[in-house]
Amino acid sequence: MNDIIDLKLTGIAHGGEALGKLEQRVIFVAYALPGERVRVQITESHKRWARARLLEILEPSPSRVPPQCPMFGPQGCGGCQWQHVQPDTQLDYLRRVLKDALQRLGGLKNPLVRKGRSAGPAWRYRTRAHFRASGQGGLGLNKPQSRQVQALETCPLLAPDLDALYQEFNVAWDGLRSVEMMVGRDSGDKMVILRTRNDALPLLEVDFPVSILLARHDGTMQPLLGETHYFETIAGYTYRFGPQAPGPTNIAAAEQIIQQTRAYLRARPGQVLMDVYSGSGLFLQGLAEHVSMVIGIEEDLAAMENAAFNCSHLDNVALHEGPPAKVLRKLLDPIDLAIVSPPDEGLGHRIAPNLARLGARRLVYITENPATLARDLPQLQRANYRFLEATPIHTAPQTYHFTTVALFTR
User: Fold this and answer.
1) Which pLDDT value is given to residue 1?
2) Long-range interactions of 59-67: CB distance < 8 A, separation 24+
3) Beta carbons of 392 and 365 less than 8 angstroms apart
4) Residue 247: which residues within 8 A CB-CB, separation 6 or more?
5) Which CATH superfamily is domain 103-119+232-238+248-409 in?
6) Which of the residues 26, 293, 317, 374 could staple to 49 if both were Cys, CB 3.0 to 4.6 A apart?
7) pLDDT confidence of residue 166
8) Diameter of the chain by CA atoms?
C-alpha cells in the first residue's frame, strides 16, 4: 500500500481508467492513457488487482490533449473521465472496451466490433443532468470516486438551453438534496425536479416558463408549477417524456442509435417487429413506418403512458404493459424482428427462447453496459441466436459512457 512504481499502460477499462500489469496484478490508473509510461502510487490493493494514483507522466501518449474544463481532474469534478483524450481515440477506446467484455466475460473468440460512432457536438450536448447541493451555496457534481460534491459555476457538456436553466437554479438552501434539470432541444420546454430533506416544500419565484416538481420519498412526483411532461423531437418524431420516464441526455446520439438499429434490422413492409423493454416508444415510433406492425412490451407504467401518447396517431402499434417474461409467454402471433434493451441486470427469464418461439430471425440488443450484453450471451446462444457484430455509440463524449447496438440472427 502506498508503494510508488513506474508502469507501462497497455489497456483501457470500462469506467475510463487505463490499466497495466505488475507481477500478474492489473493496476488501474485514472487520468492516464494506454501506451503511456507513468509513475503511480498504489492507493487500493487486492490479490489480483490494484488501483493507483497518477503522479507523473513519464512518456505521454500522442492522443493526450489539454482538458477544456478547469474542474476536470482527480481533485475536481467526477462527471468526465476523458477530457484529456482526443475524440477519435475515445471512439477507439469504446471498441476496445466492448470487445474485451465480449471476449473475457462473454466467451466470444474474436467478435466483430465496429469502431465507436458519435453524432452531433462533442461538447454542449446534454439536454438532461442531475446535480447535487454542494454545501457551498450552489450545485455541483460528485468528485471522482467520492460522495463529496464539487461546486460548479457551469459545465461544458450542457446544451446552451440547459446551461441557461442551470444558471437560474444554481442555488442551494438548507434541506435541498439535489436538482434534476431537463430541456426540450426543439420544443424549448424546461423541467426541474427537486429532492429535499423530509419532502420539504421550497419557496420559489420564477419569471420564465418552467415546470417544477418535487420528487417525494415515496416515489411519487408532486407538481409545484407548470406541466408534468415535456416534449422533444428525435429523428423527426415528436416524443412526450416526463420526470419518471425522461428522454435521452444526448439527442443526436439517440438519433444515431435509431439509425443503427434500423440498419441492423433491415426492416421492410410486411414484417412484424417486437420491442421488448420498449420504454417511452423511441423505437416504436421511429420504426413503425418501416414495418406492418410494431409490438411494444414495457413494465414501467410511466414509460408505457408516454409510449401510448407518443404512438396514439399510429394504427400499427400494439402495446402490452407488464413484466416482459410474463407478457411474452402469453403471445402467440408470429414476429419477424425483435429489439431488446434490458436493464443492467439483463434479459428476464426466458426472453430469448420466447422471441425465438415467436419466430424473430433478426434481433438487435441495446444496452448501456457491455457486461450486461456479455452475461446475456449464453441465453441468446441457447435460443440459437448467433452474434454477428456490434457498434458502440458514444452517447456521452468526454466520458466512458456509451450504448452498444448488437446484431444477432438465427
Assistant:
1) 62
2) 60/33, 60/36, 61/33, 61/34, 61/35, 61/36, 63/33, 63/35, 63/89, 64/33, 64/36
3) no
4) 127, 128, 182, 230, 232, 234, 239, 241, 254, 280
5) Vaccinia Virus protein VP39 (3.40.50.150)
6) 26
7) 97
8) 66
Neighbours of 48 (CB within 10 A): 7
Cell 475510463 identifies what position? 16
Q: What single-letter amino acid sits at 341?
A: S
> What residue segments make up the domains of the chain, in order of their start?
4-64, 103-119+232-238+248-409, 128-183+190-226
Residue 194, Ramachandran bin (φ over 0: left; ψ between -120 and 50: alpha; else beta):
beta
3-state secondary structure of 198: helix
CB of 204 closer than 8 Å to CB of 223: no
pLDDT at residue number 280: 98
Beta-strand relationship, 149-151 and 139-142: antiparallel
Q: Beta partners for 274?
A: 295, 338
**How high does pLDDT run on average in the chain?**
96
Give the pLDDT score at 38.
Answer: 98
Q: Are 321 and 298 in contact (CB under 8 A)?
A: yes
Is CATH 2.40.50.140 the classification given to domain 4-64? yes
Residue type, 5: I
C-alpha cell at 208: 420564465
Using 50 as the pLDDT threshold, list the residues of the chain that sit under it.
Answer: none
At 278, phi and psi to the nearest 5?
-80, -5
Q: What is the pLDDT of residues 205-232, one digit of tens each?
A: 899 999 999 999 999 999 999 999 999 9
What SS3 class is residue 301? helix
Contacts of 177 (CB under 8 A, 6+ apart): 132, 133, 195, 196, 197
pLDDT score of 4: 94
